[in-house]
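Below: protein 1.
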Amino acid sequence: MKFSVLTGPNFEPVSLDEAKAHLRVDHNDEDDLIATIRTAARRKVEAETGRALIQQTVQAFWDEFPDTDTLCLPVYPAIDLSNVMYTDDDGMYQVWESTNYTADLVGASPRIVRKNSVSWPDAGMYPNAVRVTYTAGSATVGAVPAELKQAILLEVGLLYERREDMPINGNMPGVRSASWLQFNHRTNLI
């Protein structure tokens, strides 16, 4: 299973003014830098928690339907399920009707549960043969946990104050700042 964000958030959970207040910055000269750091920090928090902090559209992909009756969604909190699709033998996506499953969007483990009276459809032998599109995240800043907003502010402070890389545990060449900025773009190599 893998996923991508189709539509990112329209706003950040930490405003530019909040970030500047945390940094004790009272000028506008570095607003662009602070905004970039703030977005990077939010994305890192999301990647580490599996939680969309602000509402965004997510697509999850599987190469086939599972052997069980459940498809577990990778990002929470899920607030709306758009569709479940699968490829047919010709490689064309088909909508699997919502009457065939229940969308359990509660809590940190959202999932799609196939009804006992139906089987998963036959998906063609294609990469990403199963696709689920849904909305995840909080609709308002007030719904974002305070601890996660504080984590963003701490990361913003670290990157703002330390504009050069710092060693991880005193060891080079690995460095903390560059490593975590690259975190969202990593690939698991075998």
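Below: protein 2.
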Amino acid sequence: MTNENKVISIEYELREKGKDEILDSNMGGAPLSFVSGKGQIIPGLEKELVKMNAGDSATITVSPNEAYGEYNPEAVQTLPKEQFAGIDLKVGMPLYGQSEDGQTVQVTVKDIGENGVTVDFNHPLAGKELEFKVNVLESREATPDEVISGQVGGSAGSCGCGTGCGC
């Protein structure tokens, strides 16, 4: 089995390495399923999961450079308060907007001043070493439709013929 185009389904708990607080988890809920090689999860986690088989469990440590990147202090900016008119701002709250190239971006409110709002464009987990406790529920070759669509189960509206035609 290659490392690309595998369907992998996992249960996981995410913590910052060395800390007890669970930052995210799907234990007991719907599994996280993805097609490997499509950039759907952080690279450091995927790199280890493709080596595992259904039924395997492990604790995987992922460095910042293979997760959400190093923390960039230059990604903290103070913007005019008028840009946030009508929003009940609170320190620590996430806000969503669009970048210059039309991508959705998340920022975190760091400080609210009289004339400006300081926001952090870094991902909330940037600069953190992450620890995932994972249980691999499924690991199999992707179907041709899953390979083309990049979606587990294939593309919506697919007839199932495997060509990705959408007929």
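The chain is about 10% helix and 35% strand.
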